[in-house]
Design brief:
By secondary structure, the protein is mainly β. It is about 5% helix and about 40% strand. The protein has 3 domains: about 5-80 and about 275-300, no CATH class; about 95-185, no CATH class; about 195-270, Beta Barrel (Elongation Factor Tu (Ef-tu), domain 3), CATH 2.40.30. The chain has helices at about 55-70, 95-100, and strands at about 5, 15-20, 25, 35-40, 45-55, 75-80, 105-110, 115-120, 125-130, 145, 150-155, 175-180, 185, 200, 210-215, 220, 225-230, 235-240, 240-245, 250-255, 265, 270-275, 285-290, 290-300.
């Protein structure tokens, strides 16, 4: 039975969304000392939402949503409306980072002061600002190979690709070409290996770490408290700030521990937890004139799937 997605348009008037830990607490009658024990892996997300001031049409649509949950038989994928995406202002993909680097900076300057203008591309060759053809040290002409109208690679006359020797560039040395003075950056926008999306790469059942690729380099990509989704219906909280390395990779500490393996692929937001409503009468809809309905809904994460 397919999950229902809680619509992002059904924004709660009030919301509670927390990780409920499986603990047992005993207190000594005489010393009043406490012993607290926990069951790792039994943590679950819990939510309570108030949907208020719904007028007739909105109320009827929400009635249908609640009825589709069949008193808890049907599962629903529930987001935390406070954490619909990463909180870090630095979070962005490698592609976003490159766009920022290239914005308004299309010139590459050489030691001689000659400018290569990215818009001055003649058929079969790259030209300087003075319309001279650019040559390699060996005398080969630098050519432009066009892929579907966009620059896909820089080639020598012999057909060899030009690469940078700067291995700190995300994605490896075949992705970009830096000028000798590193004054500007040119990126092969149509490289088929370019990571266009932030993606999950690793994470085993029972573990508490998740690998992520495709981030901008050397930034605080995630902050403690962010929510990520590691597989359909499995939401995890980032336990500590995560900084990407020079290649745009990061390892996230998460909680609760992974109940299922990470599904490699694009990281999707908002993260959603698979839940069930707690009671069969959760669809109750107190209504006051002129036809304004209110709903109180409690949900608990489904750990069976």
């Amino acid at each position: 039975m397919a999950d229902i997605e809680w619509p992002l348009t059904a924004i709660p008037e009030n919301q509670e969304f927390w990780l409920d830990w499986a603990t047992s607490r005993t207190t000594s009658t005489f010393t009043r000392q406490q012993q607290v024990m926990g069951r790792p892996g039994a943590e679950r997300w819990t939510a309570k939402v108030t949907i208020g001031r719904y007028k007739r049409d909105s109320a009827i649509a929400f009635d249908a949503l609640m009825s589709s949950m069949k008193g808890g038989i049907q599962t629903v994928l529930m987001p935390d409306f406070r954490r619909l995406g990463p909180s870090s202002a630095e979070y962005r993909s490698y592609r976003d980072w490159l766009d920022e680097q290239l914005a308004g900076d299309t010139l590459i300057y050489f030691d001689s002061g000659t400018v290569w203008d990215a818009t001055s591309i003649a058929v079969g060759a790259l030209l300087t600002e003075a319309a001279d053809r650019l040559l390699t040290e060996a005398g080969d002409v630098l050519q432009d190979e066009t892929i579907e109208g966009d620059v896909g690679a820089l080639l020598t006359e012999a057909g060899d690709r030009l690469v940078t020797e700067d291995s700190t560039l995300p994605g490896g040395p075949s992705w970009a070409l830096l000028a000798e003075e590193a004054a500007a950056l040119f990126e092969f926008m149509d490289d088929p290996d370019a990571p266009e999306a932030v993606a999950l790469s690793s994470g085993a059942t029972g573990g508490s770490t998740v690998g992520v690729t495709g981030l901008a380099p050397s930034v605080v990509a995630f902050k403690a408290g962010d929510l990520i989704q590691t597989s359909p219906g499995r939401a995890h909280e980032v336990a500590a700030d995560a900084i990407s390395d020079a290649n745009g990779n990061a390892v996230l500490m998460v909680r609760p521990r992974l109940r299922t393996p990470v599904v490699p692929g694009p990281l999707l937001f908002p993260a959603r937890a698979r839940m069930r409503i707690d009671s069969s009468d959760a669809a109750r809809n107190p209504t006051r004139a002129p036809v304004v309905s209110t709903y109180e809904v409690s949900l608990t994460e489904d750990l069976n799937l």
